Amino acid sequence: MDVHLTIHGRQGLAGQIYRQLRAGVMDGRLAPGQRLPSTRELALQLGVSRKTTLDVFERLIAEGYLRSRAGDGTFVADAMTRLAPPPPMPATSPAAGSIWARLEDALPMTPADTPPAYDFVGGVTDKSLFPFDQWRRCVSHALRVQARGRGTYRDPAGEQELRQAVASYLAFSRAVVSHWHEVVITQGAQQALDLLTKVSVRPGEVVAMEDPGYPPARIIFAALGAQVVPVPVDEEGLVVDALPANARMVYVTPSHQFPLGMPMSLERRLALLEWAQRHGALVVEDDYDGEFRFEGRPMESLKSLDTAGVVAYVGTFSKTIFPELRVGYVIPPAPLGSALRRAKQVGDWHSCTMTQAALAKFMLDGYFAKHLRRMHKEYAARRAALLEHLRGDLAPWLTPLPCAVGIHLVAAIRAPQDESDMIRRAAAESVGLYGMAGMFVSQAPRPGLLFGYGGIGVTAIHAGLARLASALAGRRQDAA
Ligand SMILES: Cc1ncc(COP(=O)(O)O)c(C=O)c1O
């Protein structure tokens, strides 16, 4: 592998190389166990004599930074103590005045490195059930396609095959009719929100969003300088009458309100569309996990009801495949299409073509539909197991909120239990539970827990919740 070192002048060459390699090991840029180029390769690369690089390697080996294996090469030593991370930036640093320095921790839902044994974290899917063999075939296909390509930048809106696959999937599965030309492939839903805000909201203008709502959406709107106005939700979804008249953009999750779970009623959907048309605002419909419906009939998407061209429909493969894939898409109202493509191009040219080609093949060959059917069945069983406990042995403490869609659901905590106390009690039983407090902005938080079941199987759901119920019951008996 290449190691990037910079040589200034022709003086003290060994010292320059030594200091840079040592610093790389100490701050972790050169990882433990990583193979270094041979002394011959490095000498050639840097235009120095072989003796110079040999001397440097010998010194670093003698000092314990590197180790050599006869006939195999030279490696970064395994047991290096790392330097402490640099101290926080002083208040006078260039970044200190920027909006980024003041943002709350960007994406708070990242799971812990060492998760509890029974973890109900949201935002994860079950990779153990993903058909990696089929995916491998699709990736090999994508490699073959890529090997034939010209080695140049591609269409910022994405590869045609994937856009066609997405358009036809949406038409058949989500009743969202679009032409493939309208689909813009993004790095997850998050980039779709980023681009939509950039092209339709100026700094200082108002973006309205549901309260409680999806924190990463709030953060991206704020990061781009928008004034984010929280709007309450009730059992029918966003309270349209409470929208600020000057909102340029309204962000909603109509299929499965994030986090509470109820769908937006048809009446509210129509009221929101009418409001947006009257106020010249853009409505962003985030349909992040509507694929998994367990009860009732699907309600029409805002996009399919939109006759005035005010809705941007956003979707993602983060829930149907896994979040690391980083593929999402947006179908904007037609007049925003070219600005959105430009914003995508200016930001990152386009998304990775290899992932796009593999995903297109995965969809067009029917693997995606098959995977969705399998996951639907699996998640239905997990949801049923979860509800069995919430309505059974956990009923004295928790009440599930109505929710027919998705891979998480919320349970309200019955008074006088307190959210953080419940989470602490659960953690003591190795059960990972997650609260709702951080998702409310202007409304008083209603105590509740968000149960993700994308990453926990039926057996673990039963075992974890039975443990939790008996621990809570034990405490009740102690108190009696
Ligand atoms: C409301 C909402 N939107 C979107 C997403 C997915 O975002 P992305 O596609 O950026 O991974 C999630 C994932 O948890 C979500 O909860």
Give structural notes.
This protein has 480 residues and is of the alpha/beta class. It folds into three domains: 13-76, Orthogonal Bundle (Arc Repressor Mutant, subunit A), CATH 1.10.10.10; 118-128 and 370-479, Aspartate Aminotransferase, domain 1, CATH 3.90.1150; 129-366, Type I PLP-dependent aspartate aminotransferase-like (Major domain) (Aspartate Aminotransferase, domain 2, 3-Layer(aba) Sandwich), CATH 3.40.640.10. Helix content is 40%, strand content 14%. The protein is built from 15 helices and 15 strands. It has helices at 13-26, 39-46, 50-62, 99-102, 132-148, 160-173, 188-200, 215-223, 266-279, 302-305, 337-348, 353-364, 367-391, 419-428, 458-479, and strands at 66-69, 73-76, 118-119, 184-186, 206-211, 227-234, 237-238, 247-252, 282-286, 311-316, 328-331, 398-400, 408-413, 431-432, 448-452. The strands form four sheets. It has an eight-stranded mixed sheet, with helices on both faces. Strands 12-13-15 form a three-stranded antiparallel sheet, with helices on one face. Strands 1-2 form a two-stranded antiparallel ribbon. Helix 7 packs across helix 11 (337-348). It is globular. The mean pLDDT is 91. Bound molecules: pyridoxal-5'-phosphate. Pyridoxal-5'-phosphate binds next to helix 7.
For the largest beta-sheet, the strand count, sense and barrel status come to:
8 strands, mixed
Number of strands: 15
Derived structural class: alpha/beta
Strand content: 5-15%
Uncertain segments are: none
Protein name: HTH-type transcriptional regulatory protein GabR
Organism: Cupriavidus yeoncheonensis
Domain HTH gntR-type: 11-79
Keywords: DNA-binding, Pyridoxal phosphate, Transcription, Transcription regulation
